[in-house]
Amino acid sequence: MEIHYKDKTYFSGKDLALSAIGGRWKIAVIWCLLHDSPLRLSEIQKKLPQANQRMLIRQLRELEEDKIVTRYVYPVVPPKVEYKLSEIGLQLEPVVTSICDWGDEFSVFVEKEANKAPAE
Amino acid sequence: MEIHYKDKTYFSGKDLALSAIGGRWKIAVIWCLLHDSPLRLSEIQKKLPQANQRMLIRQLRELEEDKIVTRYVYPVVPPKVEYKLSEIGLQLEPVVTSICDWGDEFSVFVEKEANKAPAE
DNA sequence: ACTCATAGTGACAAAAAAGTCAGTATTGTT
DNA sequence: AACAATACTGACTTTTTTGTCACTATGAGT
Known about the structure:
Two copies of one chain form a homodimer. The N and C termini of chain A lie far apart (49 Å). In chain A, the strands form two sheets. A three-stranded antiparallel β-sheet of chain A has the order 3-5-4. Chain A has a two-stranded antiparallel sheet with strand order 1-2. By secondary structure, chain A is an alpha+beta fold. Chain A is built from six helices and five strands. Chains A and B meet through α1, α2 and α6 of A and α1, α2 and α6 of B. Chain B binds a DNA duplex through α4.
């Protein structure tokens, strides 16, 4: 069950999924768009102040290439561009939710471990 | 709601989660251990032939550091070491499952798109 | 004529991740 | 004495990913 996509070979849906959503800010961007949509670049930037503009644009471009995110350009000046999740993008909701849920549990766990072992 | 862990600062459980499960082979290793446990290194290697031994060991070490995977060393010769998911590791099941599910849908989607646009 | 806002791009540097190859330890078997 | 099996480690190199900085375009408002 080999999948060929963008000059690479994947051996399972899971592998392909990871290559599509694996960027540093992708899950965060998708999370934003699941909660609030459509969003303009400047709005995403406000929601993710740790990421710099260049990176966000790159992540959005890749998500767009993979048809996970759709980009609407309004022909106005100054430019206005809106991003939203495609149909397949919206289906990432369980992925994002389960990661958030586990992450919250894990951060509680990590917190507990830190108190347990008061090293350094 | 800042989380400090291993000299880094995370701004949400999601960020922390991604740093813990974000390695190239981590989801794959966790997937193996969810389906079949405990496993020895040599068994994981057989299940993930694309990964080389050094990488698997590194990913396992990191998962162990984060207490997602537990490592049992039997004091025998030749060495015998078994890996299994910890309690918090087992809780990754919904994450792995949702990624696999979405990945399968995405690979169908990608397949369809490829047929739709017979470029190159 | 100048400035502002928005959404970019290009070229490059730095850092992180992944991959490669050779080598180690132990004890039983041949 | 040499070899096999297992689970590693060290020292690198290569590749990939991130991050930074400077720069562009357009029309409105001053």
